[in-house]
Amino acid sequence: MRLLYLRDAIFRRDNDSIIMSSRGTLGMIVSVVFTALATCFVAMRMYTRVKLMNRVEANDWMVIIALVNSYVFMALDIIEAVSGMGVHLKNIPPSILERQMKAFWLTIPFYNAAVLCAKASILMQYFRVFPTHRMRVVCWVMITFLGIYGTWAVISAFLNCVPVAKFWDESIPGFCLSKTNLWFSNASMHISTDVAILVIPIPALMAVDLPRKQKIALMIMFALGGFVCITSIVRLVSLKKISDSTDPTYDNVGAASWSAIECNTGIICACLPTLKPLIARFFPGMVSTFNASRTTRGDTTRRNSDWNGDATTFATPGEEHEYGAGDPERVLALVPSTGFRPSLKRWTREEEKKLARISSVPGPRPKRKHPRPLPVDVAVPF
Predict the structure, then answer these.
(1) Residue 370, C-beta contacts closer than 8 angstroms, at least 6 positions apart
(2) What Pfam families does the record tag this protein with (predicted)?
(3) Average of per-residue pLDDT across 177-202
(4) What is the pLDDT of residues 288-311, one digit of tens each?
(5) Which residue from 221, 256, 225, 217 is spatially nearest to 107, judged by alpha carbons?
(6) Which pLDDT does position 95 carry in this prediction?
(7) Which of 275, 223, 222 is nearest to 60 (CA)?
């Protein structure tokens, strides 16, 4: 083993099989640290679902798939780090360079899969948080779009070059898609979907009649997804640098680091809204539960510990019948004298048919006498 000290890096060579630099090591550490953080949040989420809520939903499995892809990305990032990432191209032997480029080729589809699965998990949570017909349609449209785009992103990453070996060996006859155009189009699509996912719940949140402090806390919780959008933009800048670089192995560290940050912060943000029961169990003083029960006389808000509060549920006026699309245990019962109040009552089939008949009658709708918007059960950390 011998050490070579250069101006900007330290190389360790062991029979010319490992080449590491300080820059590459930093990129590897970033990937490992953020993957470990994402693992902790997913572990807390699954503990909450399995031990406290006694149920695991589709959005939980989706975030687990995202974490698995993040682990594969981390492993490939480590291979890149020990294969000369952060080292000047001229100082890397051809065999080591080929290994690094193969690992780099594989990181792209697994990065895309991790990011897209985390986004799908967030959209699936919107089904439960905002169980209205309009929100479900919007979320299904977004999920369908992500599915189609994600399929293209993964396949195009694997088949960027035909034959695929041309990606790491330009001497092989064949053709490749423009890496710059492909990377920039994918990065732009990630930013656009980040913004869309961030904007989708804002109208519903603004329509909810809550104390100002509580509404701000809810807005902050959902706005945490904005950090993922910021990382996507920073990653786009790093991609611009590497696309114009004549020394890509040296300049790739920034793009690799921000890719790891983006996919893991997406997983963390997908887990945050599900941790309220865990916080309430171990830190009850940090959680304030408000169970609003409005009356036409302006009754004060009262607590109700019997209502299942694993998730916040909202609806806009006129959509109270759509709570059947969400948790069947959480519906709003109409009481003529007091407006809407929370109820654990399941709707019977006869009641559903009656409601369908009423909603299908043509003509103007009678004005409702309940306050706008509907009361909700909310639990947010302070």
Answers:
(1) 294, 296, 317, 334, 339, 340
(2) Fung_rhodopsin (PF20684)
(3) 86
(4) 544 443 333 334 433 333 333 444
(5) 256
(6) 87
(7) 275
CB atoms within 10 A of CB 166: 16
What is d(CA 319, CA 207) in angstroms, rounded to the nearest whole number?
13
DSSP 100-144: HHHHHHHHHHHHHHHHHHHHHHHHHHHHHHS-SHHHHHHHHHHHH
Which of the two residues, 66 and 331, has the higher pLDDT score?
A: 66
pLDDT confidence band for 187 (50 / 70 / 90): confident
Is it true that domain 2-274 has CATH number 1.20.1070?
yes
8 A C-beta contact, residue 324 and residue 352:
yes
The model's pTM is 0.73
- DSSP-assigned letters across all residues of 277-326: HHHHHH-GGGEEEEE----TT-PPP---TTS--SS-----TT-GGGGGGS
Given a contact cutoff of 8 angstroms between Cβ atoms, the answer to whether 99 and 83 are in contact is yes
Per-domain boundaries in the chain = 2-274, 294-381
Extract the tokens encoding 284: 């009850």
Q: What one-character-per-residue DSSP string does 36-68 give? A: HHHHHHHHHHHHIIIIIS----HHHHHHHHHHH
Q: What phi and psi values does residue 359 have, to the nearest 5 degrees?
A: -70, -20
pLDDT of residue 101: 92
